[in-house]
Amino acid sequence: MTSAPASDQAPEPINWKRNLFVVWIGCFLTGAAFSLIMPFLPLYIEKLGVTGHESLNMWSGLVFSITFLFSAIASPFWGGLADRKGRKIMLLRSALGMAIVMALMGMANNIWQFLVLRALLGLLGGFVPNANALIATQIPRNKSGWALGTLSTGAVSGALIGPLVGGILADSYGLRPVFFITAAVLFTCFLMTLYLVREQFVPVNKKDMLNRKQVFASLKDPKLVLCLFITTMIIQVATGSIAPILTLYVRELAGNTQNLAFISGMIASVPGVAALLSAPRLGKLGDKIGPERILVAMLAISVLLLIPMAFVQSPLQLGILRFLLGATDGALLPAVQTLLIYNCTNQVAGRVFSYNQSFRDVGNVTGPLLGASVSAGYGFRAVFCVTACVVLFNACYSYWSLQRRPSQAMVE
C-alpha cells in the first residue's frame, strides 16, 4: 500500500486558511438553504394536495426522513469518488446538484414528485462532509480540533438563521418562490467553491483504489474508527429524539400562552447558539488535552443535563438546560472528526468521512422515530430519560474504546 504523499502533510498555511474561510461560508449557505424551507414544509405538502391531520403528519415525516435515508445510502459512493477524483469536485457536484433539485421542488405538481425530489436531494447532497474531508486533509494535525470545530459552526449558523429567513420570505413572496431563492443560494455556493477553493490533488486510477476491506485495514485502529461511527450515530439519535416532542412539551410547561410558537422556536434554537460559541473553543482545548477527553467529558455532561429536563417546571428552566446542552453538543462531532483524521491517511479520508456521514444520517432518521415512540407510550418526560440512557451508553462505550489507545499514539 502506497503511503500518503508528502504534500498531503502540510500545505501552505495561507492555502488551508483561505479554504477554511471559503468552505465555512459554503457550509453556512448550505445549512441556511436546507433550513429555509423547514418552517413551511407541511404547508407546502398541504398545497400539493395532502389533506387530513394524519395524512399530513405521515407525509411530513416521510419527506423529511427520506432525504437522510438516501444520503446514508449515497455517502460511501461519493466518498470513494472524492478519494479518487478530489474533494473540490465533490463540493461542486453537491452544490450544483442541490441547486437544480431545489429549483425543481418549486415546480412540483404533486406529493409524489416532491417525495422523489427529496430523495434525490439526499442522493446529491454531501457538501458538509466533503468540506470536512477537504479541510481535514489540508490542515496541520495539531490544529485539527480548532479548524473542524470552527468549520462545524458554519452549518450550525446557517441552520439557525435559515428558518427565520425562510418564514419571512414565505410570508412575503409565497411558498414556491422560496425554493427558487434557495436554489440561487446553493448556486452561489457552487460559484464560490469553483473560483475560490484550491486543492492540490492528483487523481487516482480506479484500479489503484483501495477496496472497502483495504480501507479498514489501512486504519491505525479500525475498531476505534467503527466506535466513532457508532458514536456519531448515537449523537444524532439523541439530538433527534427530542425534536418531535419539543413544541408539545413546551406547551405542556407553558400552559395557555399566546406566543407558544415564539417560545418553542427560541428553545429549539438556543442549543445551536451555544454550539456556535463553544465549538471552536472546545476544539482548541481538544488540540491541547486530546479530543478523546473532550468527547467523553462532553458526553458525560450531556447525561447530567438531559436528566433534569424530565423534571423541569417551566419553559425557562428547559431553555437554560438546552443552552448548556448545546454547548456540550458543539464539541462532540468535531471531536469525533478530529479522532477520525488522526486514525486515517489522506488517501482514504473521503471514504472515512462519508461512512461517518452515513451513520449520522441513520441517526437523523431513527432519532425522531425513537422520540415519537417513547412519548406515545410513556409521555414526553420519559423521552429525556431514555435519551439520557442512550447517551450514557455512548459515553461508557466511547470511554472503553478510547482507553485502548492513548492520545499521543493517535497523534503520531
UniProtKB/TrEMBL annotation:
It is a multi-pass membrane protein. The chain crosses the membrane at residues 21-45, 57-78, 90-108, 114-134, 146-166, 178-197, 224-249, 261-282, 294-312, 378-400. Residues 19-406 form the Major facilitator superfamily (MFS) profile domain. Keywords: Cell inner membrane, Cell membrane, Membrane, Transmembrane, Transmembrane helix, Transport. InterPro entries: MFS, MFS_dom, MFS_trans_sf, Mutidrug-R_MdtG, Tet-R_TetA/multi-R_MdtG-like. It is found in: Cell membrane. SUPFAM superfamilies: MFS general substrate transporter. It comes from the Bacteria. Gene3D superfamilies: MFS general substrate transporter like domains (1.20.1250.20). NCBIfam families: PRK09874.1 (NF007372). Belongs to the major facilitator superfamily. DHA1 family. MdtG (TC 2.A.1.2.20) subfamily. This is Multidrug resistance protein MdtG. It comes from Rouxiella silvae.
